[in-house]
Structure formats: structure tokens, C-alpha cells
Amino acid sequence: MSSQNSKTLITINTLHKLKATGEKFVCLTAYEATLANIISKSGVEVILVGDSLGMVIQGHESTLPVTMEDLIYHLKNVSRGNINSHLMADMPFMSYATEDAALSNATLLMQNGAHSVKLEGGRWICDLTNTLSQRGIPVCAHMGLTPQSINRIGGYFVQGRDPNKQDDMISEAKDLESAGASILLLECVPDDLAQKITQSLSIPVIGIGAGASTDAQVMVIHDLLGISCLEQPPKFIKNFLAENDSVQTAISAYVRAVKEQTFPAKEHTFF
Ligand code: KIV
Questions:
Q1: Which end of the chain has fewer CB atoms at under 10 Å, N or C?
Q2: Which CB contacts under 8 angstroms, 24+ apart, belong to 219-226?
Q3: 23 included as an active-site residue
Q4: Does pLDDT of 5 surpass 60?
Q5: ∠ at Cα 116 (196, 100), nearest 5°?
Q6: How many Cβ atoms are within 10 Å of 112's Cβ, its own excluded?
Q7: How far is the CA of 185 from the centre of ligand 1 (A)?
Q8: What's the pTM?
Q9: Would the pLDDT of 3 be above 50?
Q10: CB count, 10 Å around CB of 6?
Q11: CB of 224 within 8 A of CB of 48?
């Protein structure tokens, strides 16, 4: 498989234009070439090589054991299968604990096929975001539920329900935009907070468990295909394979549902 083709690559500019015109865009995780190829052919604008691979591919209980080596291995495979989607790569746990680590690890991801990198955190990643973006590396800042901090948070809970915390999260999101973040990702936050943050920023906001008002949606491919290992899958996921007869049609149905704003529905949303 090759990414050499005549289709135009989706860039950060494309995603910013989609936000400006109000067209929703679609993000999906991938960890290997064949699914990345199908996903890209289905019109998914952003493929995320997420550190969720620690859970869905490696069978760990959290994303913490994922290393740079693991991430690069999966990124290279996805890159070979990708056609023209924007490839976002997660920076693993502690790979951006210092500025030097962030610079060298983000560089490695970009040199191995990423078009942007994703870091988890709020105000504390502003300086790192600035450093990376000043040097030409687009940053997606991941706020809300940040799974790399699961031991501090104490569980996979909805974040930002406290009205005092909400104002702080809105100002953190604005600070990240001012620091140079190109994209924001919000995980597991109430619908009204996601709406306020999305409206306050000019950069696109991707949501997961953040309701329908964000500019884009992201899902873990295993969840979309109904092969979650969890006994009780979270309410924000939808098994698209259940209503479709192939992986290809399930992914296309997800793309359509996000674009037509039928997913996420109320039953997938936290209020
Ligand atoms: O690692 C991942 O797949 C993610 C998504 C759940 C947003 O960060």
C-alpha cells in the first residue's frame, strides 16, 4: 500500500476551513495499514494513532504502558495504509514530561509519518504547545478526561460538571489556543461545556463523549465495530457494525452520521 496518490491531503487548514463553514468532520483511530486504508477511503478526515492502542491492541488496563517505540511502530503501519487523511499521533505517557523530551519525541513522530501530535493536559501544556507549534509541529491539546492521568483522577469519570471548574476549563482552552494549539480534543465533558468551549475558540474542537456541538467527533475503531473488551461499554460509543453488513459500510455509516449530525444522539451525551 502506498500513500502516493492524486487525492489532496487533508491539512490543518482544511480542518480550520471546515470549522469556519460549519461542516462537521470525522476522526477515527487506527493502528495498522489495512484498516487505515479503508478508513481513509471512507472519507474520514483525521486518523488518530491513539495510545488507546495500549488497551485495545496490547490488552493493558490503561494507556500508561505505551512507549514511543510502540507508537512509532503503529504510526508507520498506519502511514503506509493512509491515502489522504490527516495523521495525528498521540504522545505517550511521560514522552512530553519536559520540554526537551517533548521536542525530541514530537520530532520522531513527525519524521515517522505524523502530521500533528496530541498531548493531554490543560494550562500546564501551554508552554510545550508554544514550543512545538513555533517549530512547525501542529499540536492537538486533549482536555477533559485525560486517560494518562487516570491514577490522579481516580477513574474514567465525566469531567467539568462543577460550574466553578467549567469557567476554568473554558479559560484553559482559550489559553491553549493562544499558545498555538491547532486543534482541541475534549473527552467526556457535559454537552453545555463542550458547546461553550467550541463556540469560544476559532480552532476546531474534536469531541468524544462531549455531545453533538463540537466541530468533529472521534471514536476508537474497536468501539465502532462493537468489539470493545469492556463489560459495560461507555454510553458515548455506538456499534455501527450492528446495523451494517461490513466493516466498510459501518465506517461509512459513522462518517455519514457525524456529517448529518445524527451521531452522537442524546443517548450518547452527558448532560
Ligand atoms: O488514544 C485515543 O484513542 C484517544 C481517543 C480516545 C481520543 O485519545
A1: C
A2: 219/27, 219/28, 219/29, 219/254, 220/29, 220/50, 220/52, 220/56, 221/28, 221/29, 221/30, 221/31, 221/35, 221/39, 222/56, 224/28, 224/250, 224/251, 224/254, 225/250
A3: no
A4: no
A5: 105
A6: 18
A7: 9
A8: 0.97
A9: no
A10: 6
A11: no
Residue 2 banded pLDDT, cuts 50, 70, 90: very low
Which of 144, 148, 169 has its CA nearest to residue 158?
Answer: 144
Å from CA of 138 to ligand 1 middle:
17
Q: What does pLDDT average to over the chain?
A: 96
Residues 6+ apart with CB under 8 A from 253: 240, 243, 244
Q: What is the mean pLDDT of residues 245-267?
A: 98
The preferred substitution site among 27, 49, 51, 70 for testing ligand 1, maximizing ligand atoms within 8 Å of CB, is 51
Ligand 1, pocket residues at CB < 6 Å:
29, 48, 50-52, 90, 185, 187, 208, 218, 220
Band the pLDDT of 7: cuts 50, 70, 90: confident
Residue 15 DSSP SS3: helix
Which residue lies with its CA nearest to atom 2 of ligand 1? 50
Report how far ligand 1's centroid is from the alpha carbon of 119 (Å): 11
pLDDT tens profile 203-238: 999 999 999 999 999 999 999 999 977 778 899 999
Closest ligand 1 atom to residue 118 Cα is 8
- Spatial contact of 213 and 198, defined as CB atoms under 8 Å apart: yes
Question: How much of the chain is helix, strand and coil, in % rounded to 5?
Answer: 45, 15, 40
Q: Which three cell numbers stand for residue 113?
A: 509519518
